[in-house]
Amino acid sequence: MKRVRLTMAQALVRHLAAQRVRDEHGEEPLFAGVFAIFGHGNVAGIGEALQHVRDRFPTWRAHNEQAMAHAAIAFAKASRRRRMLACTTSIGPGATNMVTAAALAHVNRLPVLLLPGETFASRGPDPVLQQVEHFGDPTITANDCFRPVSRYWDRITRPEQLLSALPQALSVLTDPADCGPATLALPQDVQAEAWDYPASFFEPRVHEIARAGADPRQLRRAAELIAAAAKPLIIAGGGVLYSDASAALAAFATALGIPVGETQAGKGALPWDHPCNVGAIGVTGTGAANALAAEADLVIAIGTRLADFTTGSGQLLPRDGARLVSLNVCRHDLVKRDAVPLQCDARRGLEELAASLGALRPKSAWLASAQARIDEWNAAREAAVAARGAQRPSDAEVLDVANRVSGPRGTVVCAAGGLPGELHKLWRASGPGAYHVEYGYSCMGYEIAGGLGVKMAQPDRDVVVLVGDGSYLMMNSEIATSIALGQKLTIVLLDNRGYGCISRLQNACGGDAFNNLLDEAAPRIDFVAHARALGARAEKADDLAALEAALARAIRADRTTVVVIDTDPVHSTAAGGAWWNVPVAEVSPSTRVRDAHADYRRHLDEQ
Question: pLDDT tens across 259-297, in order?
Fold first, then answer.
């Protein structure tokens, strides 16, 4: 057997560079490259290995470890989980900075390979700089924090362990059902240690993403329920997009006359104006989709994990008397909410269902009713985004301007606070790839870094990041990275002087304004000057007309642009929506809190 003598780090990088992915769209490298912030623990090991292959396996430097992992995760999501990135850090804080991003990828079922540096496997120089010492267990390091938020976790204490660990990690990263972050903790002495690896370990390997078909018995049961239903409703989740099933969904829904609601992850599966699309579902849903959910006798959930925002904390979906069919590749999701399971790939499952149902007549009257409701919702939507003439515009008014200016080539990116709720209801997505909102982990600070990852995956789209001042202050460093990498973003910074979304939630739960919004004595932050200091173009828009003009300039600009506008922290869209279970204090000296608790109890009694 031919062997090649390499360090463990060199072998790891060479193996990753040899991985490829193939589907009906063609073949390309599985890993587009690696984000790296070097320090002791990875610079002399994996850093040395990356330097020598940088012409065929790109390395990019970021400014924050959490942010670079967010960018990598967004890249994978925008690539529909077909391609991915790796991220490497030093030991200690460099590594633990990525734990939040690992949790985000875990919740959202998105692939990213995390390669944090480690202390010495030999323990010779213990304790080294930045080492976390556990007095009762010397095998524990800071990287054990990744265990609960990784789909696959391993510590490479011998160079030859790569031969088994890397194929296992890659199998998780490319598995539609178990997809999520894989973490390989890399002790710094082992990274530099050499071993004679089989040459075959570095031969190109082509991964073909599996498309599991349905069990015939499950398929027959689901088809029987759909055929018998008078008022079926489809819920399109992120799995529709990851499976490249948008065309299959459109054909299935159109042929059978079934309205389609969208989760946050599934938004854009159908264009906003498709005859079957009734918009967002759940807590941040449209009045149309939620009204239909209340009437439906069958809900067909496709590629969704049925989280609380989708189901209205279990109050909206499924309602009493309605059945639920869950079409999902992941076993864990199939059994939620007492669903009838249909375990399969979304696209293949829809095609098999269509063939099984044959010439079933479309439910024309039900679809006509749905279309009448969406007409009503479109009127409500126009009222919600109409300029109020207030001193500060609402989030809805701002996003409508961004929606119009960015057009069909635009991709909106957002993550946390009140904006995702407004976007879910109000943003008109032109189709797959036009909407990218991280709302599984709802992680503040994802927005700008996520926008960078989306732009790297979709260079031909105009990426528009909507971010509040709170999230901007948490994580803005990748503005500089976007400029260094030539990845142009348009960033709309909505400054409502604090955490407006949580202030509204606090008020809805009976509380007084407390610790969320900045008072007049707090300093005014010059966000325009700050963005310019990071290398971006930046300007302040004083009103909606100025915003529209500024965004048009930003779209045409040759580098990242930040447009700042002051917004109303109180006003939000009243139309649409469903109940969200947020417990209210049972005992309080406040009359408002006691009243809010009584209202909360009424909602619980309705479940």
Answer: 999 999 999 999 999 999 999 999 999 999 999 999 999
Cα dist from 17 to 20, 205, 457, whole Å: 8, 10, 18
pLDDT of residue 81: 97
Residue range 343-348: mean pLDDT, rounded: 98
Measured in residues, the chain has a length of 607
**pTM for the whole thing?**
0.97
Find the domain containing 270 and state its range. Answer: 216-377
CA angle 533, 535, 419 (to 5 degrees): 85
Band of pLDDT at residue 514, cut at 50, 70 and 90: confident
Token pair 């710094």 is found at 188
Residue 340: how many other CB atoms lie within 10 Å? 17
The domain spanning residue 542 has which CATH number? 3.40.50.970
Looking up tokens 């001193």, which residue turns up?
391
Instruction: Identify whether the C-beta of residue 420 lies closer than 8 Å to the C-beta of residue 284.
Output: yes
Round to whole Å and give the CA distance between 567 and 570. 9
* Most confident range, picked from 209-213, 261-265, 333-337: 261-265
**3-class DSSP state of 352:** helix
C-alpha angle 534-537-543 in degrees, rounded to nearest 5: 120
Per-residue pLDDT tens for 182-201? 999 999 999 999 999 999 99
Q: In degrees rounded to 5, what are phi and psi of residue 26? A: 130, -170
Same domain assignment for residues 223 and 130: no
Q: What is the structure's pLDDT at 317?
A: 87
Q: Could you tell me what percent of the chain has a pLDDT over 70?
A: 100
Q: Are residues 151 and 183 in the same domain?
A: yes
CA 510 to chain centre: 31
Q: For the chain, give the mean pLDDT.
A: 96
- For residue 473, report the phi and psi dihedrals to the nearest 5 degrees: -70, -30
User: Is 337 domain-assigned?
Assistant: yes
522 pLDDT above the threshold of 90: no
Q: In what order do the strands lie in the sheet with 561-566?
A: 435-437, 410-414, 462-468, 490-495, 561-566, 537-540
Q: Are strands 31-36 and 205-208 parallel, antiparallel or unpaired?
A: unpaired
**φ, ψ at 155 (rounded to 5°):** -120, 125
| 188 vs 194: CA distance, rounded Å | 12
Q: Are residues 32 and 177 in the same domain?
A: yes
106-132 core/surface letters (b: 16 or more CB in 10 A; e: else): bbbbbbbbbbbbbbbbeeeeeebebbb
Residue carrying structure tokens 């349905």: 214
- Antiparallel, parallel or unpaired: β 84-89 and 410-414: unpaired
Q: Which residues contact 565 (CB under 8 A, 6 or more apart)?
A: 393, 398, 492, 493, 494, 495, 540, 541, 542, 547
